[in-house]
Structures are given as C-alpha cells and as structure tokens.
C-alpha cells in the first residue's frame, strides 16, 4: 500500500503487518495488532528474527526534520506510537510515546544488531509532539509537550554514508503485550533542514 499525504514531499509505503493506515483532514491513523513490536532483545546472544509491527515509511532527501503530534489509545503495557528510522534490517531506531509500563513515557530504541532501550520523561495524557531530524548519517530525537518548547532526547548515527542516503523515515504503531492499539498523528510537518541548535529548546 502506498499513501501520499500533502504534508510530506515523498510518498509513504506500508511495511510489516497491516496497519490499516488512513489519512483524512490532516490526521494520519494506524493500528497495531496483538503483540506486534519491532525489537531485538539485547539479552539474547543469538540474533533471532526481528519482531515486526506496522510501519508507514518514505525516503526523504538530504537534511530534514519530521514532526508530528502523536496520540495513543493506550490499553496495555508498551503500547506506543512511534516516529521510526530504518537504514537496514538490523539497523533502525524508534522515538516513542509508550505506556512504559503504566505511565505514558517518551522513550527511544536504537538497534544495531540488538536493540537498546532508554526512557526519557513521562507525559500527562495520551499525546506528545515528536521530532526526528537528520544531517548526513547523524539523527536527533526531540520531544515536546506543547509543540513549542523541545526537549533534546538523543543524538546517534546509523549506517554508513552510502546506506544513510537510502534511509526510510516515518510512522509505526506497536502493542507488544496487548491486543492492539490505535495511534493518530496530526500537525505533521516536514522541514528540509537540520535544527540550528539541538539543545536550546527551539
């Protein structure tokens, strides 16, 4: 399934399980099914097949920022709405609003073979603004309670220069322990440049 939305200068394609993706009046909606996730436990010595979850991704060119307000219909631990970056089958990252495990929390996962897992700060209610930015092979994650004042969450690299040019970026829904959850993304915005300062709140 391909989907074009006016806020983004590139088309989106669905990956993984069916996310029932739709876009209407500036709101993107998706749904994770039961026990769907994208995570490779760091406690496993062997590289088991990566679990999967509905993703809707596209290929931006050059530096960019992708911004959205994410709202999650939390029902079970670790239900989440995600901004997602994919460079390879074992190299990807998630910026999540997650029920972690019983409080809405901004958290991140960076996978290089195995996944790490970092909680940043809790959120009142089921919505938060998320932003993923790229310059070269560097990516930055930010989050905001109001869409105005941004908190720096994480800076990292993925892939090599050749791989990064083909990075996919977009949206994901997950419900690792539950029976599924709905996620909406609104106030979607694309900026064709890297933030001027990662830590000043802009």
UniProtKB/TrEMBL annotation:
Top-rank taxon, per record: Bacteria
Annotated region described as Disordered, given as residue ranges: 23-50
InterPro entries named in the record: ConA-like_dom_sf (IPR013320), DUF1349 (IPR009784), UCP022704 (IPR015987)
A Pfam family that the UniProt record links to this protein: DUF1349
Protein name: Regulation of enolase 1
Source organism: Streptomyces caelestis
Source organism phylogeny: Bacteria, Bacillati, Actinomycetota, Actinomycetes, Kitasatosporales
């Amino acid at each position: 399934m391909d989907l074009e939305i006016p806020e983004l200068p590139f088309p989106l394609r669905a990956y993984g399980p069916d996310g029932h993706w739709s876009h209407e009046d500036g709101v993107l909606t998706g749904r994770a099914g039961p026990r769907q996730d994208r995570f490779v436990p760091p406690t496993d010595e062997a590289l088991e097949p990566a679990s999967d979850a509905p993703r809707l991704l596209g290929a931006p060119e050059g530096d960019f920022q992708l911004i959205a307000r994410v709202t999650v219909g939390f029902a079970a631990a670790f239900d989440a709405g995600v901004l997602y970056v994919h460079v390879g089958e074992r190299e990807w990252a998630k910026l999540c609003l997650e029920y972690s495990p019983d409080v809405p929390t901004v958290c991140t996962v960076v996978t290089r073979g195995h996944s790490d897992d970092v909680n940043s700060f809790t959120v009142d209610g089921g919505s938060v603004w998320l932003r993923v930015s790229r310059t070269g092979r560097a990516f930055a994650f930010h989050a905001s309670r109001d869409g105005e004042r941004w908190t720096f969450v994480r800076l990292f690299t993925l892939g090599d220069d050749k791989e990064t040019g083909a990075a996919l970026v977009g949206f994901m829904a997950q419900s690792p322990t539950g029976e599924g959850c709905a996620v909406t993304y609104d106030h979607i915005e694309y900026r064709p440049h890297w933030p001027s300062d990662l830590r000043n709140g802009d």
